[in-house]
Design goal:
The protein is 20% helix and 27% strand. The protein is built from three helices and six strands, in the order E-E-E-H-H-E-E-E-H. The strands form two sheets. It has a four-stranded antiparallel sheet, with no helix packed on it. A hairpin with a 2-residue loop joins strand 1 and strand 2.
Amino acid sequence: LSDDLIKDGEEVKTAENCNAASLFDVVLPLPGHAVSIPAWASSLLEEQGIDLAIFAVCEEWHLPGAYRSLLGRVGDLQHEGQEDGSVRVSFSLGTSCYATMALREILRKE
């Protein structure tokens, strides 16, 4: 979508302002006062009565928000058959990625 957020180096842009991007470049905002929110997400927040301005008025906490990748890549994937018939799998993941989700995708039968 044209208002999806794309991580371009250290900068976050809308998809319409990027020359080329893959699905691995799409980021989702974690709400806060310093993040850009796509129109589709703003609509959802409004429907739930959530105003992002509340993140800027709290003096006790600094809640700027952040961005998380929609998809992550598995790196250094290795597998080894064991004598008992099981398989040992090892891999690396980036920050904020979950091994259980990666294993689900690796082991999924189509």
